[in-house]
Amino acid sequence: MNKESNAYIILFSVIMVVIVGVGLAVIAQITKPNYIKNQEIEKKQNILSSVGIRVSPSEAEATYNKHITGSVVFKQDGSVVDGQDAFLVDLAKELKKPEADQFYTLFFCSKDNESFYIIPMRGKGLWDAVWGFVAVNNDGITIAGAMFDHKGETPGLGAEISKEGFQKQFLGKKIVDASGEFKGVEVAKQGKYPEGYEHSVDGISGGTITSNGVSDMIQKYLKAFQAYMKVNVSAIPAPQPEPETLDTLETTLIEADTIN
Amino acid sequence: MSTETAVAQKEKEALFSAKRRKLITDPLNDTNPVTVQVLGICSALAITVQVKPSLFMFGGVLFVLALGNVIVSLLRNLIPSRVRIIAQLVIVAALVIVVDLVLKAYAYDMSKQLSVFVGLIITNCIVMGRLEAFALGNKWWPSLLDGIGNAMGYGLILVIVAAARELFGSGTLLGFKIIPAAFYEMGYVNNGFMILPPMALVVVGIIIWVQRSRNKKLVESN
Hints:
By secondary structure, chain A is of the alpha+beta class. Chain A is built from 6 helices and 8 strands.
């Protein structure tokens, strides 16, 4: 057969592509279980890091089981969905559903005799997905930690959301104001709000679209979280300055927590 | 750009004849893909902040280059010359995907750190350059040696650059503290600039300078 004829070239290409395709598919299948396991471990590490626990991949499993005491799947209006494993809910897939049908997840975490709610979230940045885990204190209103990551934001600009400097700002922010109304935490341009404002953090200069994406994501998931708390963990009173009331509030919350 | 190394092989040549040994040793110095041919600079800048990722990168390139050379060399009489570049690309891309999948499954951290640069091995000029200039015209054994040699030449520069950057940028090598704490107490500070990509270019430049001043063969005669 003439090596330069069209028929030969087409035959050669077809055979080559089929062999390569089959070969790659086989290798992909072989490596898949390990890859999925690695991703699960990474997710566990991320969940833990939102409350400040940093572990190596080999310890992630055990530490996760020790600290994460439970999880729940719920909808936008706060109603609990039964029969779903929160860990396996893929928020990327949920985002494609109509808003009212989307599943939200929540993990319960205990660390040093304190308990936290960890809210996984996912949204859109400038180029691709952004996601994160926000930990909220037992009172249901104070943010205890946050961790964000992204798929492909611009290094040095939008990608800064995955840096500690950005994430630290969230510590101690409140998601409801003194009158009990939902405010969330806005990622705002520097100077938009006065210093010490409890419902915003500084955005990233040059990373406005990423900042807005993170902001929208946080608002959406915190709002759903608040709805969940209202429906399932009785009404959340406005933050009280007196420590006595806080103590009682905490006990009620823990009780409500165990019921769940 | 690439030097013509294709030589007619006599039958029954020893496996490691002088000529074949040169296939491995030449790319380490005289025909180094990075410092002499100035190929693969992009990844040399990107992943040389620390030694460990650069070792993994070297492993990836070694695998792709050596195996790609062998496969192309074995198929060289079957590949129609009109579509040879496409055929080479398919082979290289397939090998790179294998590297990517294996890293994701068995070295997840590294795979995240190297991110797109594993995929970009496809566009590494060293790989396509060797396939086109050597493997298409030689038997599989010399092609394998050539692939290994060039990957080692690339890896050598990668590791030197990475070691310099990690040592002066972070004070560590492979993650171990090298610069004693006493130095820091006396006021020594890690050079943050070493961690940034431009410094890799400067380090590569210094390596080229040193190499050219010692190897007279590389100095242009005019």
